[in-house]
Amino acid sequence: MPRVAVIEDDLPTSNQLRSWIEAAKPGIVVDQWFSRDEAEAAIARERYDLVVLDIELGRERHAGVAIINAINKKHATPVLVVSAMPATIYRSIMKALDAWDYLQKATFEEADFTDTFLEILRAVKERDKPAQGADELAMDPLRQRSPTWRGQRINLPLTAQRILAALFARRGQVVSYEELYEVVKSGRNRDNIRKHVSTIRDAFREIDPAFECIENVPMRGFRWAD
Hints:
Blueprint (H helix, E strand, L loop, with lengths): L2 E5 L3 H14 L4 E5 L2 H10 L4 E4 L9 H12 L4 E5 L3 H10 L4 E4 L5 H17 L10 E2 L9 E2 L2 E2 L4 H12 L4 E3 H5 L8 H18 L6 E4 L3 E4 L2
Parallel strand pairs: 1-2, 1-3, 3-4, 4-5
Antiparallel strand pairs: 6-7, 7-8, 9-11, 10-11
């Protein structure tokens, strides 16, 4: 069974996250850590399938950042950040650190957490399978494995991965804004969809500066054009 670490200094919150994880995946092994020192020691000795962590631990406002850096040096384990820090500021920071997704406390329900958590576990299971080809986008629209472009992993939040999967599944066709609303959990408006598409383009261009496969179709939506 998968092994997960919950790194959260508030005991009720830690227990809540643990109960949601165990309900979503019966039999899963969940370790709880409450400080940076405990967490870093555990990461050094254990190989986790996923880490759920808060950014602020005790008096250390950015302890989670140090822990993510330690994880990346050791195993590159997927990280789901659950923090009270504002998502508008910290989501991009966590993305730059290669965290897989970011949930802001008090803005999501159990179902949102469970969906995100299970999608990351599925992506972990799929990511080591051979890529479909080094010269094209490799992803599974059903399982939404971590996508790769020209053999390199594309660092995208899961919502952006859902949008990318929808566009790629219908490559050559226009995917309307209304259809894209169906794959996002919140922010079902055109501005939010545009922001996600901009995030996708930026992620591709970090790997391939000449990337131009996602076309804007004015007043309608977007299209993946090979």
